[in-house]
Amino acid sequence: MAKKRIAITMGDPAGVGPEIIVKAFAQEDIYKICNPIVIGDKAVIKELIKVIGMDFDLDNIEMLNLNEIKNPSKLLKGTPSEESGRACFSYIRKAVELYRLGVVQAIVTCPITKVALKMAGLPWLGHTDMLAELTDTEDYAMAFYSEHLKVILVTIHVPLKEVPYLIKKENVIKSICFAKKACDMLRIENPRIAVCGLNPHAGEEGIIGREEIEEITPAIKETKALGINVSGPYPSDSLFWRAYKGEFDMVVAMYHDQALAPFKLVAFDKGVNFTVGLPFIRTSPDHGTAYDIAWQGKAEPTSLLEAIKLAVRMEV
């Protein structure tokens, strides 16, 4: 069976993306598990190798050089800029183009930042909504994978004060269905899906909030009628422990930090972010650009390696 062709985008050139790519290829023979092609700037990688004093032969990486950063020595390293924001988008756009041409079957994205995108005058908050628009995808969800905990979000990057207004039955139904699809992509048979409540104690039968009664429970009942093995809503302060111990295969969380705080506690170095609903597999390290340690030789490639391995495993 032919190995999967995977595009790896460099992410923000001012962040840790260039370093984790070089270290990933130096640490493992990625060509044994897939056919990778790095999309980015060769001159940036060369500059990175020089700056951190790493002994690495760049010829060991097949790379599509877009030459977005004209003078890497003058790149504002460890900080967002208009130049790096434009480069982020260029790498991702090229990866999607390669998918449309049938050249790659999956995309692994190194970290970008909303600030750099905004400085470049781009409208997106991150990879997820950018990839959705580039592929004309209307319905999608952000999910996270680790060996012991897997979660999917009903709401993504919205202010906390807006979350309750978005917890509507139809949105929860959609997220539960995406949770089932995520499990299918991960090849989990007969998955057990658990749903978080929004409020403390899952609302305590309406005493601490009514979203569980009016929106979340009806959504669970409707998706259960579709044949999905789903239950809840459960208090999130105990649900994640139960899922971590193996009682559930996937957790549907109501908002970003409800899921990401426990997830990163148990899988900060190995967690993988993936998008459900796109026409192709897309994974990413579950960490940011880490500007505070970028270009200093301190970045670890573990999460990127896990993202690559997961992209190999998954099916759309």
From TrEMBL:
Keywords: Metal-binding, NAD, Oxidoreductase. The keyword Oxidoreductase applies. InterPro entries: PdxA_fam (IPR005255). SUPFAM superfamilies: Isocitrate/Isopropylmalate dehydrogenase-like. The keyword Oxidoreductase applies. Its EC number is 1.1.1.262. It is an enzyme of class 1 (oxidoreductase). Pfam families: PdxA. One of its GO terms (molecular function) is 4-hydroxythreonine-4-phosphate dehydrogenase activity. This is 4-hydroxythreonine-4-phosphate dehydrogenase. The gene is pdxA.
